[in-house]
Amino acid sequence: MYRKKDRDQITIENFATPFGGKLNAKNRWVKMADIIPWDMIEDIYAASFKEENLDGRPPIPARIAFGALYIKENENFPDERTVEHIAENNYMQYFLGLTEFRSEPLFDPSMMTWFRKRFSKDDMTKINEEIYRRTHPSNDDADPPASSGENNGKLILDATVAPSDVRYPTDLSLLNECRENTEAMIDHIWDKTERKGHKTSYNRNVARKRYLKVSKQRKPRKGQVRKSICEQLEYVEMNLETLGRLLTMIGIENLTERQMERLMTICEVARQQRKHYEEPKASIPNRIVNLRQPQVRPMVRGKVGREFEFGQKLAVSVVDGFTFIEEQSWNNFSEGVTLKASVEKYVKRHGVYPEAILADKTYRNRENLRFCKDLGIRLSGPRLGRPKTLVDKQEKEQAYQDGCERNMVEGRLGIGKRRYGLDRIFARLDNAGEVEAAMNIICMNVACLVRVLLRRLLRCLLTGLFYGNPVRYASA
After folding, report:
1. pTM given for the model
2. Domains of the chain, with CATH numbers?
């Protein structure tokens, strides 16, 4: 059972450093420590523990668990380097709620995986909303506007893919990996049976050579690739039959839980590949492209140099420079279907409908256009159907202005992929990958919040300088 700690933030004057002195109040970790909603995080973290488990080692505090994940994504570190930097940095330890500097590691790097399991993508959404609420008053209890004249603000929508750390998949390499995995499973349980002779009904060295003969070619012919795929698929199917007979003899409990999950994945891959081989043009739903991360799906993007991306798809919105995840899924979806839900979330935050929605042509379907028209919302972009021969000058200026303002969402996604780790998600589990992607968005929003607070402080100081009341601004 999780026991909640003292939630009061220690002052920087009381933090004990190894060489004396005091922490700098202007340090970024000190500022971010005041922004993160630690109370909400601890409630979410405590709810993930079982109440009846009273024995055993007490769990690591929520602030250390969430703070370590935040440090990892904010600095774009791997798990091991995150633990090392925490042990070397006074300010990071203050950010984690410690009262004095500790030179030894706070936890083993493998614990980072368990920290991610304590949160869900819905939990990360609640935390992100709370961070935004700290700069904008909550309008949760506000009623929707009665007329379109009350609409205010602009909602910017777009979608992107957060690629997973997987190699570029091909059917041939995937089947070769399935063959090698099934061979290892046969070796694992072979000594527990009374079988003698050859373990597989084919020569493993020959199977390996036939795979390398094609995979090492720079541009193999389609006929060669298709023939090699058929060979590797037959090897996999023979191994699955052998495993079925062996497990019937000795029991399925002789495989570990991880091996059972991998075996089920390989069975599904073999089924999909057989269907694709017999019907090349047939669509395969939920197609598996990686054995270690079976949740990863191919996303058709059609971009220059990157026609496909492999990872999770994110539908995002940007309001006042803050980024929100509207939809997050490992399966492909049309981002146009998220528009209505995004508008309702906007109303919940601000109490009014947006004046305009800035989005690309994917969002401009008939249903969305009708929805926006009924609410008095202007949906940017060209009209459906044949384009006009003569375009009004005002419409051109409006389209140009919308395009300039819509660049904000492109910039936010670019920051997430270049500055943070949104361009490559290293977590292998599906929930861990979702939490890692959502944490990148939270890191961006905290940095945005710090900039907003600094601008407010400067504005207050400048106004107080000219109007003679700087104290009121400093307190704000």
Report:
1. 0.87
2. 1-119 (no CATH), 140-166+299-455 (3.30.420), 171-278 (no CATH)
